Amino acid sequence: MAGIPQSMASNILNATTPTGTSGAPGTFTAFAGSAMKVRLNSTSSTASAQGTQLTGTGYTAGGTAVPAASTASSSGSAVTLPATSALSWTNGSGGTWSIQSFDLTDSAAARSWYGDFNGAPISIANGNTFTLAVGAISIGLS
């Protein structure tokens, strides 16, 4: 299950409670307008800190852009990603990757969601590929 970083929880709470002037809702700090990114980590992310990002050939620091829009939540349904095509990373680092968690970030690296992968840590040997199938990440509030 995906978690909400503390900064996002505060953003949501402040925008939906009377924290603004004269008891009005506060403001919501919007994310950068470019494609969101999936960042892979070798350690677990937490509400207060992102995990330790993977390094090495085959992985782009900062994460990989999500290629298409996900279906918007309706009646509280979860949002899944990636939406239309899988995301893949081929390990060319010379060693084994140990993938524990992900962070979903905006293009300026502000985190919106995080979570451990099922079966983590996932070992990806040099020359092998880690793929997130369409809909592999499900983000919801329940």
UniProtKB/TrEMBL annotation:
It comes from the Bacteria. This is Uncharacterized protein. It comes from Actinoplanes palleronii.
